[in-house]
Amino acid sequence: MTSPHSAAAAAPRHLLTLDGLPREALEALLIRAQAFAEGHYDRRALDGLAVCTLFFEPSTRTRMSFQLATQRLGAQALNFDASTSSTSKGETALDTFKNLEAMGVRGFVVRHREDGAVAALAEHARPGTVLINAGDGRSAHPTQGLLDMLTLRQAKGIDFSGLRVLIVGDVRHSRVARSDLQALRTLGTGEIRVCGPAALLPDDGTLHGCTVSQDLDAALDGVDAVMMLRLQRERMEEGLVASLDDYHRDYGLTAARLRRAAADAAVMHPGPINRGVEITDEVADGPQSLILTQVANGVAARMAVLEALLKG
After folding, report:
1. What is the mean pLDDT of the chain?
2. What residue ranges define each of the domains in the chain, with the CATH number in brackets?
């Protein structure tokens, strides 16, 4: 969220990143999301407001869960489809945003391929208009980070200090990984491990404080949760991955590999899943998988964000 970040301060205006969000503010959102997950909410909380999912990239889970979250809180959900909009005629994202804002839309859930695109729109927002980053470039996906932390809390408890969490895959190009790493640090996670091919690991400060490895078997040893990342097929075209078979051999999560983790280790994946590449059917659909729980929690987490920013 943009400043002020203090939980005691006035409600922040936008949610652009989890980076810098104080622990008490993050935990407040998670507590509220848990209440929503249990069915405790006011169906008229946002009555009379309009919220637009302004997506310039494809989406299934994020778009649909935001629309459900909006409707469950009583607001009007508007769906923007870039492929059938005036953006195909050359209209800029900013002009599209300003025109919808002029119609009285107060909340915007924005996904864009470019880093910083949502923050750039936020700079032009009128007072009373709020923006939520639904994923920009490789920078951030804050509500995915929230729903992942909610899922972990449900499975492992609210104290993360004793947890060992492993993130596997293409961290370099992953906005999900960046938001998860920010949230895990903020919540005081005991050990954060990261594993992937060297070509798919960032060389900036993203992995500060993490235990980094290219050996998945070793990285899995005793972990309490494994967060798999989608392998973007274009990385093969860029020559960063030799083949899907090679990637699966070295970094795919199989039932045999999972046995190296703690016996009750949670398996997570933000979707969409490339079955047989980053994870096998047996694991994705197995008893330790929380993948569909993550999907369900996406609605609750996004309800918490919408309420925090738009109510009042």
Report:
1. 93
2. 23-141+296-310 (3.40.50.1370), 143-289 (3.40.50.1370)
